Amino acid sequence: MGAMNVSLGMPKAPDPVLAPRRRTRQIKVGSVGVGSESPISVQSMTTTNTTDVNATLQQIAELTAAGCDIVRVACPSADDAEALPAIARHSQIPVIADIHFQPKYVYAAIEAGCAAVRVNPGNIRKFDDQVKEIAQAAKDHGTSIRIGVNAGSLDKRLLEKYGKATPEALVESAVWEASLFEEHDFHDFKISVKHNDPVTMVRAYELLAEAGDWPLHLGVTEAGPAFQGTIKSATAFGALLSKGIGDTIRVSLSAPPVEEVKVGQQILQGLGLRPRKLEIVSCPSCGRAQVDVYKLADEVTAGLEGLTVPLRVAVMGCVVNGPGEAREADLGVASGNGKGQIFVKGEVIKTVPESQIVETLIEEASRIAEEMGEPVDGETAGAQVSVG
Ligand code: SF4
Question: How far is it, in rounded angstroms, from Cα 127 to Cα 106?
Fold first, then answer.
């Protein structure tokens, strides 16, 4: 692809942002600040039975390692509520209890020491009558709340008024519930208005952003399997985050929750809203390619997974345009004639046979990462990899 002009290399100045963050009030979800004064946080939700404390904590540990900032756990029964204190105590990241239907579990979660409670006003019985008591309990324990309005469980009154879960209906529900909490002098809450259609969801959040200074939790609900859900979430979040709207995000995928966290991180990194970590810049391949670019890019990506330093690695399929592009990255390869020219910071450091490209890149990446401060304990990215 002769005209490929990717801008490579780590920027010297901070990345530009598309728009300043929308100003919000600031709240805390345990140790994590949520609002325009804090970085945008990535959330996910456990898929284990909450009653299985060990399995839930194990999954939370995996989510934490993947970069999850805040985790939500479902609390559908008394047994789940009983598991919450141990989960809240031992989790490395703040735990939000997700409550539907039964208001008594809201109190149980607050008592259990959860950092926050997500309430769904549309399906908690007589929710509006409980707001005063919930606000008081949350205030007493320093617990924050998420008012989580969802298209699938919208208040019946609003469904009748609007005919379906329109952006206006979602926002009216959220604003009404927010006003109830505020009447009781409770302000430590964020809001979500999720819908499975990105266009409806984006419009709802835009309207909500104009209606108050609440921190907003973004989500496209039931976004689907990994491929579709990733695209739906990325497009919807991109539309909102590029206008400064959104303070926490959750990518909902019909896939293991660690995947949600990886996608969430990538979305924020792609928009320059979180420092970039590993970035693979690989060419799409074309008729000039003299190597299997897809395989090479996959192997390099797998080999470098886990690196936490900002490293830009270029994988280019030919020597015609490859060298110029690879030269601009921290590390790169331009392939051709059964060989790979390896570049580090713009200099060709060696030429290796094609069969050694991946292992050489991994070695060099690990060395650069170490120089950049990557913790090395025998478990460097290179050491974890078996190269095929
Ligand atoms: S093989 Fe890759 S680097 Fe070479 S011209 Fe084609 S797309 Fe560009």
Answer: 11
What residue has token string 């209906």? 169
What is the SS3 assignment for 336? strand
For the chain, the farthest-separated pair of C-alpha atoms sits apart, in whole angstroms, at 74
**pTM across the whole model:** 0.85
Tokens coding 342: 């390896």
Q: Can you tell me the distance from the alpha carbon of 135 to that of 188, in angstroms, rounded to the nearest whole number?
A: 9
Which ligand 1 atom lies nearest to the CA of residue 287?
A: 6
SS3 150: strand
* 335 Cβ below 6 A of ligand 1: no
Q: How far apart are the first and last CA of the chain?
A: 27
d(CA 177, CA 148): 10
pLDDT tens, 203-240? Answer: 999 999 999 999 999 999 988 899 999 999 999 999 99
CA of 334 to the centre of ligand 1 (A): 9
Closest-CA residue to 372 (of 301, 331, 311): 311
The tokens for 174 are: 């959220």
**Ramachandran area for residue 205 (φ above 0: left; ψ -120 to 50: alpha; else beta):** alpha
State if residue 286 touches ligand 1 by the CB under 6 angstroms criterion.
Answer: yes
Of all protein residues, whose CA lies closest to atom 4 belonging to ligand 1? 318
Q: Which two tokens stand for residue 360?
A: 């050489």
Measure the CA dihedral 206/212/216/222, to 10°: -50
